[in-house]
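WARN no homologs supplied; continuing
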Amino acid sequence: MKKLLIIVSLFFALPAIGATVVASVNGTPITDTDITMRTKLMARQGKTSTDNRRVALQNIIDDNVKLAYAGNFNAVPDDKTVDSELKKMKLGDLSTSEREMARNALRAEIAWQIIVARTIMPTVNINSEDVASERANLAREHGLPIEMTIVRLMDIPSDIADRLTKPKSCDDAVAIAENFGGAPQKFTALQYELSADIRERVANLPKLTWSSRVDNSVLLVCDTKKTSEYKNLDEIIKQNATYKQAMFMADQQLKQLRRKAVIVINDDRYKL
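OK structure emitted
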């Protein structure tokens, strides 16, 4: 009996073994182990940071906030949907705890995308002016699927550049240049195939109009033709602009939800 009492006394004298609760969200605890699992998941996804554990905690907090909000709209995906998407991610062999962390993170992300699609996307209004502006930016920065025939004059003196008149056609532009003793280059290319400097100069240049003289050269777009790729360009631009605006609005909404949530940080190392 005495031996048994000694064993029992030693048992109760041992420190409790368990994960440290680092924080809580609306009463749901987040442990140090949870954060470790999340950092491992982030590493598998190629997401590394000098502040990984703080980032991991913020991600877990956001997961809880998103799922709580999505519950109000019956937008939390079921296990079958989550497991199906998790399989597509090909994260490799996961431990039981890693898999559960991955499932929870994915469940929150899917739920949030549902919320965005249901409540935010329908409120975004991208008008024709927005599309035109984005198309112009795209043309300048990356080029459009438009075939352009261009005449270029190299090593042209400024006085000659000032005397170039507006041509009636591409052949007329070549003739004008040749009459001044120039050797015009005529070429055809897709706008996105042009070098960045030429693309920027011709992006908003009216047809059959000589450009300003830059680096002793002038350019003229004498013909353009929309390719088959151009057909759905405005719709694609509108979709991308809508998604971009919706993601911005969703981020603002998430910030508001965080402020309303009861978030308690118990460890000063993780103060946000």
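The chain is about 55% helix and 15% strand.
OK
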